[in-house]
Specification:
Shape: globular
Strand content: 25-35%
Structural class: alpha+beta
Bound molecules: beta-D-glucopyranose
Number of helices: 20
Radius of gyration: 27 Å
Low-confidence stretches: none
Helix content: 25-40%
Distance between the termini: 35 Å
Length: 772
């Protein structure tokens, strides 16, 4: 059920009126980020109400010692935690010895706004203290997209009914903690603090792994726009520095503090340089000035939108939602650094450890492939290439050999950190998504050199894994894959999960074609790779070919549907509609054993396979499987509805597609799952993008050609999206009558619509009538 409390606006997220019950939700929803770091919408001033403080730096994590009830051999020693890091936003305000704290004062005219077009968070309110003094406060802040180690805040106070002393105290505080710490331990140890008038730095390091982070602040104060000369008092203690500035404020006049933070980490600099570099970043920012910094930041956001925006006419809620999703994806990952990736909660909360899941390859990659320069997606792939050694070690640990690779379910540095046997050891389909991502990247970009440079080694490791993971069943006269968990985590330890078997045989056959390609086109490099990987070409390829032809794929001959796993038909097959509303979500109301025995499906599983391999199945097959599985799917993973939207659109189920779309698009904005206070579902936001562009927009790639097969929701007047397609940038519009494609670049692009292939020169536009 939706819980809407935010206003609908096409470019903004707006919260009107103060209700402390919504604050933690808003802290997630109004988060800002620039790919290098992120910050929940915590208040600058003190706040004694419920809050989840969150300031995150990409790639900086803590290996928190594993906590499990029953240890199983092969479990990882730690779970990587995304770290709540330095509080750089803090500005305490004190008026006549009373602290400005929204939990302690009377608040009126509260408004919080996230301007997604320009990446700017702002807030305004009036506060009345116990002694009757009233102030008006207006704040703004952003994390610069241009200078990604810089954050800036403008914080203005206007006394409304008094003249008098106000103390403003900007500070940096590294004495922070993670709510999800396994052993109630603080993760940061102090290194160094320095403070002087109008500046300060704090450095801390993680107690394990020695990540060092420095934060520096500079600030200036204006009265009615005029610089004020300051005589601050400084304060310093372990992990904390502050400046206190006493101002004699006059009623009706506005006093603004601009605070600039520079944040650097040992991922990018030698430890000895960290704190001076952070200070340089902050002081450069102050020299540039708040307005100019903001201007360049805004321009960078507009540039991002120019190749990624989606315009929906006729449905303002859907319009706001899709921009919200695109905005947060770009805040989380900009693609400049191949060491970084996309955690399911991005920089908006602690849950899921902020690490990499198969979500990146299966859901996020398509978004970045279509909206950003090729390098961004390439960097996402290289991330896994760099972890290949660890994936091989991981497989070895579980008993595999000869270079077989099992990528982790959850990781920060390539090591597995997930610790539930049914997922860690069994949810091995993740390997398939990593192989599929290589195929997806190559069919989008035609960058086949990637296969020679990096792709083949990953494909080989994964194919070797699959070849060892299956076994020959005498009883079936087929190869089988036993004891797996498919994407549907409401089934564990099943045999022959269609999706996993399909991913396995597909990976092996793709690897075979890649070998042929390399032999023909990169003979020298191929010879080098054969040596490097001890690839026994003949024996291994023959083995794969044998498995591909003889792998058991479960199917129900009578209904002609693919079976999620062996024995699926023994279940009490019923529709999720038969569940009482009070039982849903079942994962909060049913015992685990009941869930496992039921037919209910957490997330797309067979249908995930049909989505990936749409080009191999006809529409009738897709429809039969959709009709069979959709009614049993409870969509209790946010990653689920998008795949169903896409398939429903393909088979003409417009209403169903739209109904499912609503669940994904406004999942966080309307807090469907009542958990938005923990953070946003960043990776499923990419699924929302897929629903719009690949579902309603009908964009798909078949045999390396771009196709459109749109199905506009009834209540939308039109849909418009921008795509990067190889060298070209295409603006695609769909209304009730036509598909219009405009090539806004200089390069010619080709696409298929209906039976025709269209060549579209740079600068040209084509209008094609939709079939009635
Ligand atoms: C889903 C997984 C997903 C993970 C992180 C789980 O609930 O079942 O498929 O990888 O969340 O988003």
């Amino acid at each position: 059920m939706e819980q809407r409390y935010l206003e609908i606006d096409e470019w903004k997220i707006i919260e009107e009126g103060w209700d402390s019950n919504n604050h933690m939700k808003s802290e997630s929803i109004f988060s800002i980020g620039n790919g290098r770091m992120g910050q929940r919408a915590n208040f600058e001033e003190a706040y004694s109400g419920d809050t989840l403080q969150g300031s995150y730096i990409a790639g900086v994590y803590y290996p928190d010692k594993t906590k499990v009830g029953w240890w199983k051999n092969g479990y990882p020693e730690y779970f990587a935690k995304v770290l709540n890091s330095v509080n750089w936003i803090g500005i305490d305000i004190e008026i006549a010895e009373q602290s400005l704290d929204l939990a302690q004062v009377k608040v009126s005219n509260f408004r919080r706004e996230l301007d997604m077009q320009h990446g700017l968070l702002s807030r305004s309110f009036s506060a009345e203290f116990a002694d009757g003094k009233k102030v008006k406060v207006e704040t703004q802040r952003f994390l610069s997209l241009v200078k990604d180690e810089v954050g800036a805040i403008s914080y203005s106070i206007t006394p409304l009914n008094f003249d008098g002393k106000v103390i403003i105290k900007p500070y940096l505080d590294f004495d922070v903690e993670n709510h999800d710490a396994n052993w109630e331990e603080k993760f940061w140890a102090p290194v160094d603090e320095k403070v002087a008038a109008q500046k300060g730095t704090v450095t801390a390091k993680t107690k394990k792994l020695d990540f060092h982070v420095s934060a520096a602040m500079r600030f200036e104060v204006f009265a009615q726009g005029e610089h004020v000369t300051l005589y601050p008092e400084t304060e310093q203690r372990e992990k904390y520095v502050a400046n206190s500035v006493e101002l004699q404020m006059e009623q009706g006049k506005t006093y603004t503090i601009c605070k600039y933070a520079g944040i650097t980490s040992s991922m990018n600099y030698a430890v000895e340089k960290l704190s001076t570099t952070a200070d340089e970043r902050a002081s450069q920012a102050m020299r540039t000035g708040y307005d100019k910094l903001l201007e360049e930041h805004k321009a960078a956001w507009l540039e991002k939108w120019s190749t990624s925006d989606i315009v929906i006419e006729g449905d303002a809620a859907a319009q706001q939602a899709i921009r919200f999703n695109i905005f947060h994806l770009f805040q989380t990952f900009t693609g400049v650094d191949p060491r970084l990736n996309i955690g399911p909660k991005g920089f908006t909360g602690e849950k899921y450890g902020g690490s990499t899941y198969w979500d990146t390859e299966a859901y996020c990659l398509p978004f970045y492939l279509s909206t950003t320069q090729q390098e961004v997606s390439r960097n996402l792939l290289i991330y896994r290439y760099k972890h290949l050694g660890k994936a091989i070690e991981n497989a070895q640990k579980l008993g595999f050999k000869n270079g077989a690779a099992l990528y982790p379910m959850v990781t920060m540095n390539g090591e597995e950190c997930h610790n539930e046997w049914e997922i860690t050891f069994e949810e091995i389909h993740r390997n398939g998504a990593i192989a599929y991502a290589i195929f997806n990247y190559v069919r989008h970009t035609l960058d086949r050199d990637y296969l020679a440079d990096y792709g083949f080694e990953v494909l080989l490791g994964i194919s070797r894994f699959w070849a060892q993971r299956v076994n020959w069943s005498e009883a079936k006269g087929k190869y089988v894959m036993l004891g797996v968990t498919g994407p549907n985590e409401y089934e564990n330890n099943v045999n022959n999960n269609y999706y996993t078997n399909k991913m396995a045989s597909w990976t092996m056959s793709y690897t075979l074609t890649v070998v042929d390609y390399l032999k023909e086109n990169h003979a020298d490099r191929y010879a080098e790779l054969v040596k490097k990987t001890n690839f026994d070409e003949k024996a291994e390829m023959e083995e794969w070919a044998d498995i591909i032809s003889n792998l058991h794929i479960p199917i129900d001959e009578e209904r002609q549907v693919l079976l999620q796993q062996d024995g699926f038909l023994d279940k009490d097959l019923r529709s999720a509609d038969s569940l009482d509303a009070s039982e849903r979500p079942i994962n909060q109301h049913w015992s685990w054993d009941r869930i496992l025995r039921s037919c209910f499906i957490k997330q797309a599983d067979v249908l995930q396979g049909l989505y990936f391999f749409e080009h191999q199945y006809d529409k009738a097959t897709i429809r039969r499987n959709f009709d069979f599985y959709e009614p049993m799917t409870v969509h209790e993973s946010s990653l689920s509805p998008c795949v169903h939207v896409i398939l429903a659109s393909r088979i003409g189920y417009g209403e169903k597609a739209y109904e499912l779309y609503l669940r994904t698009a406004r999942l966080d904005l309307d807090d469907y799952n009542r958990e938005v206070h923990e953070g946003l579902h960043i990776t499923s936001m990419a699924g929302t993008w897929m629903s719009v562009v690949q579902g309603f927009g009908g964009m798909k790639i078949i045999k390396e050609k771009l196709h459109f097969e749109p199905l506009l929701p009834e209540n939308w007047d039109s849909l418009n999206f921008t795509l990067r397609w190889r060298e070209a940038v295409l603006n695609v519009s769909i209304d009730k009558k036509n598909l219009t494609v405009e090539n806004t670049s200089e390069s010619t692009a080709e696409f298929v619509f209906g039976p025709h292939t269209n060549q579209l020169k740079g600068g040209k536009k084509i209008v094609l009538p939709l079939a009635p």
